[in-house]
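[PROTEIN RECORD]
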Amino acid sequence: MAYPPSPDTLSAVYHQCASSEDTATALRLARLGLQIPTYRHEACLWLGLPHLQAQAQYSAQSSLAFLYLALALEHRQDQALGHALVVRCLQQLGHLPQALAALEAALHRHPTDRNLRQLHAPLLIALTDAGLIAPTALRTRLQRSLPDITDPQELRQVLEQLGALPNPAAADSPLPRVIGTVWHDPVRQQIGGWLIDLAEPSRALEVEIEFQHQGRSTCSRIPAKYPNPLLVQAGYAVSHGGFRVQLPHPIEVLNVRCADGPALIGSPLAALPVFSPPAPPAKRKTPPNKQPVDVLVPVFEGRQTTLDCVDSVIEHAARNRTPHRLIVLDDASPDVELAAALKKRARQGRLKYLRHPANLGFIRNMNRAMALHPERDVVWLNADTRVHGDWLDRLRTAAYSADDVASATPFSNNGELMSFPRMQHAAPMPDAEQHAALDRAAHGLRLAPVVLETGCGFCLYIKRRALDEVGYLDEVELKRGYGEETDWCLRAHAKGWRHVGAVNVFIAHAGGHSFGPEKALRVMQNNAVLRRRHPQADTNFRRYVAADPLAPARQQLDAALNTTTAHPATVWLHQAKDTPLPNAAPTSASSAAPPLSAALWLIADPLGACSSPGTPQRWLQLARHFARQRKRQQPAPLLLLDQDNPWEVQLLATGQVLKRPQLRGLSRSEILAACGTPVAVQLDGAAAPEWFTHLLAAHTPTMHTERA
């Protein structure tokens, strides 16, 4: 990641010195840049790159490289290569799960960047070699990425790695070498795809297609005789490998495989026509307190999480006066035990169970479910959520708080705009007791709904009148389920509807934390559609986030949970904020001298209103002392500031203090571990520690030795 030299003096002189290999002057300029706010992030880049280059020889440099480059990246999220450098640092440190989390968060922002996408498969391989991902899970993830790959180099990389994986049926033999993908175009009513024999790419293959419709099954074979541009560019088949078939009519289930070989990725598939919404029922006015609701839960995998969700709705059904029906939408789940458990609950009359013979994906699944009862409101409820109390009554009350409200979204630990304690940040899933306490606290505040820019699909109450006017979800242009609720909400906005946050409801939501490049590409494709349809949406969304109308509600809920450390949700709240409890033991004793050989000290004292008198001044004094040592070419640790405080500007201006970076996908503790902070130091107290006084008074080389 190289920023172009700025026309101003410091950047120009730095780049001139760096290009002429005057490293000593370049280093002094970089450290000077740390003291100037307008240069600070660029200076972090200047300092981080040499550490990254040196880390192959000196592993201790990896942590400093990560710290500097992560700080540089904070300021330039648009630089995909910066994300790649941070991922590389994490890999060098051996923090492989964190490297994967950082990479997938970067792919969410830069889904088509070649450097990032080509890091993904090797990182998954490294995690598998380390025993952190099972080989079967690795194979599944690599295979799932194939339909969305558009870069021939990436395709070849993934195919080669798939070909090298062991066969689960026989550990000493490779996997079957024939692999391919199949897709369905519902507008043209066509299926197509590609397949290749990795062991013998020149061999022409045939595709076997099994049609299942209205209880009848037929098979046919066709040659994969058309050249596929992606395979050609990847160096495989030149004259064959691709196929395309025109379907005579909609097919319930299509099984597509290589003739006498494995199924293609994407099979089985439902070759259904584009959804046609039912006509709205005759107009009739149902009082809001009698409006029936379908609670729609789409399920596929995650047995225990799904059953916890379903059981929470069943358990709390009696606490809700809203007439409702729980409908579970099994989207051809491969989990036989999950299907059996859901069928058992259906036989007991606790829910309605619907299963599709082939996977439809979220959008097609939800469209058909919302059309089951055209007179009812609907609630989308993810299978990884958990509800509590009279959640549905409160959610419906928010939706009917005004005639022009189309949807309502509750508070959650993982709910985008409605996330608590921080907007747009996923917090850990609370346990059942913590969730109950969170929901009771939200209910007790008696707060009015807050207008939202868009709702969030993890739990979304939609009024039928709005659904009839706005229409259903787009299953033609939006690929495989991403951004569908944003599109629907923005279409509703255009027709004069509003969306609200039900801040007196709290729904627990686990959320998906790992998605890979296939979903990243889907994000890019669907975001392109949203930008074309709603060109002002990004600007309006940023304005909403900057204004943050939800802040007062979050602050009140935070205050309600912080009344006492005995509150069941207080422990969760501090975990969510990644801060210790108020009565937690200190990180290190202030009486012990920290080792000066450590590259980094974490400032473990609070430096705000609750700090002891004189403590912030001592840290400022120590930072200036270490800065003077560095100018004299003497070793001195950097100081890491962990939280916002009134002394931040003065501390950072010393050039010896850095602010802990924040990276999407990584927690505070994971970032601190990657920064290499073995020493957390406290100066808090009425009197300064003896070592502190001695350190500032000493001016001999002996003061750099480690102390017990």
